[in-house]
Amino acid sequence: MTKYVAESERLGLQLLSLEEHLDGYHDIMSDVRTVKFLHREPSKSLEESRAHMISRALSSPENPHKEMYAILLRGSEDSNRKPKMIGSVGIPRVPVDGSAVEVGYGVNPNYWGMGIAPEALQLFTRFYWNIREGERKDMIIAYTAPANISSQRVLEKSGFTKGELIKQAYEAPDMLTQEMTWYPASRWHLERPK
User: Fold this and answer.
1) Are 186 and 143 in contact (CB under 8 A)?
2) Quick one: how far is CA 98 from the chain centroid?
3) What is the pLDDT of residues 144-175, one digit of tens each?
4) What confidence score (pLDDT) does residue 133 get?
5) Phi, psi dihedral angles at 61 (to 5 degrees)
6) Distance of alpha carbon 141 from alpha carbon 124, whole angstroms
7) Spatial CB neighbours of 36, under 8 Å, sequence gap ≥ 6
8) 3-class DSSP state of 78
């Protein structure tokens, strides 16, 4: 039986690992629809996805704050079918001032439009605030590209409040020219429930 840190009737969250989740992670990162707002090319190989997972999604001595979880589609309890990784959610980074944590999430496009992302994000936020209470920040923030309406809907459904538009939120390569370019993003926040 699979162990989850948080679960609903159809989803479970499990700490992301290379051994258990690389294939599912590759399915997501190799799809052009998924990486559109990440300003990167889709992974061309399992090794490229492995390198990305190690550098961007897994905790390490250099980045101990990363706390990413696989979103698993649960099978029936009497089935021998292994739960399928269909996304990830968690903390990819902590802002420099340390006043909040940033949440990130992504779902395999084959599961878009099914309410998976808001359900997983809500599972994660409840889990985040219910463990190691004294060590947790009182605010979770998220950033979305102004054109990423779907991600904005996920945040709205999950109780986040839209904040300011930051005109130069992050720098990433332009997909056509590969020149470094500044991109805007809307900042969203969710405060710890009282």
Assistant:
1) yes
2) 19
3) 999 999 999 999 999 999 999 999 887 777 77
4) 63
5) -55, -35
6) 13
7) none
8) coil
